[in-house]
Structure formats: C-alpha cells, structure tokens
Design brief:
Blueprint lengths: L1 E6 L2 E5 L4 H12 L4 E4 L10 H14 L7 E7 L6 H9 L5 E4 L19 H10 L3 E3 L13 H16 L5 E3 L5 H9 L4 E5 L2 H4 L2 H4 L17 H11 L6 E3 L8 H4 L14 H11 L6 H13 L7 E6 L9 E4 L2 E4 L9 E4 L1 H10 L2
Parallel strand pairs: 2-3, 3-4, 4-5, 5-6, 6-7, 7-8, 8-9
Antiparallel strand pairs: 1-10, 10-13, 11-12
Helix pairs in contact: 3-4
This protein binds (4S)-2,6-dioxohexahydropyrimidine-4-carboxylic acid (DOR) and zinc ion.
Zinc ion (ZN) binds next to loops.
Length: about 350
C-alpha cells in the first residue's frame, strides 16, 4: 500500500448548475475540494453581485451538513458589463474574477462577449484593480476548424490582449493544446492556465472509438495525443502557471445522448483518483500537490488550505458508479477507461484519523 497526504485541493474551474442538479452534483466536489471557482453560465447568467450572492447562498444551502466548502463566485461578462459595478462587486468580495465567454463558444454563452473591443474599458479596470480575467479561449468563427479554435484564439485575441495589458491577470481556462502551454510559458507570471483531469487522460481518438461517444465530448474538444502529452508535461512540472480546474460540467444523460449532444464531462466524483493515476504514470506524484493545491491559491493571492486529503493506493480498484441520479434523470460520470487504484480519504476522514491517532 502506498499513501500520500496533500493539502486539500481546490477546483479553479467548476460548473455546479442550479436547483436539483446543484444538489446532486455539489457533494461530489465538496467531499474532496475545499474551494472552487464557480462558473457563471447559468440561464440567465450570473451578471450582478446580487445574483452572485444569491447563487452562492443556494450553493451553501445545498451543502451536506458535514462538508466545509467555499464557493468563489465569478461574473459573466457581456458587451454591456459596467466597469464600475464590476469593480464594486470585486471590492465587496462578491466576485473573485470575471469570465469571458466569446458569444456562442460553448454551453450558455449566447450572451457572452461578441468582440473583446466591446469590453476594453472593463479589461482596463480589471488590470487596474487586480481582478483576474478567466478566458474560454476559443474563436467562434464557424469557418475555423473546431480543433484549431484554441490556437487561433491565442493568435487573434489572447496574445494581443496580453501585449496590450500585460498587468492584467489572465487565466487561460482548460487549455488543450501544446500551443496554449507554450503561450502561457512565454508570458509574464500574470498569465496562468487551468488544466482539466479529462484532457490529461483522453485524446480525440477517445471520442470516436468504435462510434461517436458523447460522454467524451466537451469544449474545447480533446486534441491529438501530442497535445495531451504537452498538457501532462505542464501539469506535472510544478510550474506555478499551471493548476487544476476540472471543468466538471454535468449534463443529464438525455441531453448528452442526443442528435445534438451538449458539451461537458462530469468528472468531479473521480477527479482526484484520476489525477493521482496520471501523476503516478508520469512518476511525478511528489508534484501533484503543487498542481491541485498550491499553485492556484498562489496565483489568486489566497492562502493554501490548512486541511489535508490522503490518497491511498490499494490493489482493489475504486468503485466509481457509472452515473448519479437526479430528480430529472441520470448524469453519467467520466469513465477514464482504466481501473483507478487511488482511493481518496476526505479532509473530514483525515482529521478524524488524526484525532483518534494523533
Ligand atoms: O464542455 C464544456 N461544458 N465546456 C464549456 O466551456 C462549458 C461547459 C458547460 O457549461 O457545460
Ligand atoms: Zn467550463
């Protein structure tokens, strides 16, 4: 048996949804993560401090009694976001960051930003006040190949933006390409990237293995194997610019398995087991904590968590169910297609064990 104790992780990019779905999915994150940056792409999106406060309260109300979890709220930017209201929301602690969805890029992004020029004043203000900009980095031009949209976004939007406002803190979310990894490394430390669990485990072949597999479809879409290797190298490097954002994005099974299935993988339940598996494969278990628990808080200027989780490798694989049930139907859990042997002891279990055996 091999065991590893690490500072309790945070998830720097998470979709929690609302209502019955929120209640069903939240415990899978709050059992293992201390904090998460909560995406604002609800219908309607979270655009005001008041909406963020109310959503935060709904999340807290849905928490299982014994879980300690802090939701960090974000503001959904639109062409008409007002810099004053945004900076008030940031100063008041209602928003930790603002999210840029290029309009039409992904799920519930229709009211996103149609062109960055429309939010120039907002971006300047964010740079001034030190408010991080979280970016869904894909162009929306339908003539651009879906596998190239991230690389083209770097060239057309992100690189000019960083050159124009180098002091603006940017998180390039869920990067999927070697181009993105190289770009982030070439930038000042004001630019960071999140990497998901699934993009470390699957490549684009997985989506088409023996047929179309909707449960591996997400945006940005998984790329070629060489890109997955670049992501693995970045995640396991312990470089401060790379940290975990699972982008766990639950959708009902019926919406995934449809003629026009939605993008998003529900990875929260087995994220840590998957990550330990990946880091072990890369012989980098000693750098797992930097990726899951230290680099993110350092970038956001927050203290690391004071509790711990324990990862234990057992011969018996972790029994991950195929799905979770909600009142609206099942949600399929990410299947990494390999047995996972890393079992997770939650912060509560670790604390209890320490009490019994100090
Ligand atoms: O696959 C994705 N799903 N990518 C996103 O950017 C949004 C997310 C969702 O909200 O379902
Ligand atoms: Zn997302």
């Amino acid at each position: 048996m091999q065991a590893l104790e690490i500072t309790t992780p945070d998830d720097w990019h998470l979709h929690l949804r609302d209502g019955a779905l929120l209640e069903a999915v939240l415990p899978h994150t709050s059992a293992q993560f201390a904090r998460a940056i909560v995406m604002p792409n609800l219908i309607p999106p979270v655009r005001t401090a008041q909406q963020a406060q109310a959503y935060r309260q709904r999340i807290l109300n849905a928490l299982p009694v014994r879980h300690t979890f802090e939701p960090l709220m974000t503001c959904y930017l639109t062409d008409s976001t007002d810099p004053n209201s945004l900076s008030e929301g940031f100063a008041g602690g209602h928003f930790i960051a603002a999210k840029l969805y290029p309009a039409g890029a992904t799920t519930n992004s229709d009211s996103g930003v149609s062109h960055v020029k429309h939010i120039q004043a907002v971006l300047e203000r964010m740079a001034e006040i030190g408010m991080p900009l979280l970016v869904h980095g894909e162009v929306t031009d339908p003539d651009i190949d879906v596998f190239d949209r991230e690389a083209v976004f770097i060239e057309q939007v992100l690189s000019p933006l960083h050159a124009r406002l180098p002091q603006l803190k940017i998180v390039f979310e869920h990067v999927t390409t070697a181009d993105a990894v190289d770009f982030v490394r070439s930038c000042a430390s004001t630019v960071a990237a999140t990497i998901t669990t699934h993009h470390l485990m699957i490549n684009r072949n997985t989506i088409f293995k023996g047929g179309v597999r909707p449960h591996y479809y997400c945006l940005p879409i998984a790329k070629r194997e060489c890109h997955r290797q670049a992501l693995r190298a970045a995640a396991t490097s312990a470089e401060g610019q790379f940290f975990l954002g699972t982008d766990s994005a639950p959708h009902l099974q019926s919406f995934k398995e449809s003629a026009c299935g939605c993008a998003g993988l529900f990875t929260a339940p087995n994220a840590l087991s998957c990550l330990a598996h990946v880091f072990e494969e890369e012989t980098a278990l000693e750098r797992l904590e930097a990726f899951t628990s230290l680099n993110g808080p350092a970038f956001y200027g927050l203290p690391a968590n004071r509790t711990s989780v324990r990862l234990i490798k057992r011969n018996t694989p972790v029994a991950v169910p195929k799905e979770i049930m909600t009142p609206d139907g099942p949600i399929v859990i990410f299947d990494p297609q390999v047995p996972l042997h890393w079992h997770v002891e939650s912060p509560a279990q670790v604390a209890k064990r320490r009490e019994l055996c100090p």
